[in-house]
Amino acid sequence: MSLDEYYDVALDLVKQAGAIIREKIDRPKDIAMKSCDVDLVTESDKQVEKLFIGGISSRYPDHRFIGEETTASGLKAQLTDAPTWIIDPIDGTMNFVHGLPHTCISVALLVDKVTEMGFVYNPIIEQLFIARRGQGASLNGKPIKVSGEKELKKALLMTEMGTSRNPEKIKTVMDNLQILVPKVHGVRTLGSAALNMCMVAMGGADVNFEFGVHVWDFAAGDIIVREAGGVVIDPAGGSLDLMSGRVLCASSMELANEIVKQLVQYYPERD
Ligand code: IPD
Ligand code: CA
């Protein structure tokens, strides 16, 4: 097994995927609904996932995959010790549908359930975030670091409205905004869970949390934030559980703990 080789193959596929997203973003799209009318999938989501899975499995037939669109078509996500690629072919599908240039492909490789590498690529504005375990994180080849901010009142916070119409989930989002807006520097919701985490990794934001995300939304962001010196935990405190649908990342443990104290919790269905 050569992680370096896997890295080279994955990077090439991520760039090919980026070319598809870039070419399609300002063209008419074939759009379908998934769990509800704001949970969308396009032909390009499916095309990118097929390209990535095809490219890896033709070289490494024993590798496994957890892909957003293959899971949506009925395959239950299963994380085993086998080398497993966790793929979000287009994160920020709603942005992609509208032509908002904040959208990306997100890919992570786990071996023995440990994340070895993560890629988040926004091909529209050319932001390529990469991390490998123990080797740091980079943006377009340059090392990145979290801001190190510790204080809630100086923090720029990111979160998402999510892609669910569940009234209890929407109420939790609104309750948390009501609590946090008066306490932080500002709140941003840009429409991509993976890119939110990369904003924390590069020091452009200080904290991000979301309930109701999926493992493909944050597996790559998790290693990118940690390798940039940040922390990624469960929003109630304690270790991150990749299959829990819950994530909180921050520029420091002090700040993460401050947010934990404030949050109204929500426990979505597990992946
Ligand atoms: C979604 C986006 C959105 C977040 C959702 C994700 P998708 O992913 O990241 O910002 O709020 O939780 O599922 O559907 O665009 O791949
Ligand atoms: Ca996603």
UniProtKB/TrEMBL annotation:
EC code: 3.1.3.25
Catalytic activity: a myo-inositol phosphate + H2O = myo-inositol + phosphate
Binding residues for Mg(2+) 2: 90
GO molecular function annotation: inositol monophosphate 1-phosphatase activity; metal ion binding
Metal-binding found in the keyword field: yes
SUPFAM superfamilies: Carbohydrate phosphatase (SSF56655)
EC class: hydrolase
CDD domains associated with the record: IMPase (cd01639)
Keyword annotations of the record: Hydrolase, Magnesium, Metal-binding
Family according to the record: Belongs to the inositol monophosphatase superfamily.
PANTHER family: INOSITOL MONOPHOSPHATASE, INOSITOL-1-MONOPHOSPHATASE-RELATED
Protein name as it appears in the record: Inositol-1-monophosphatase
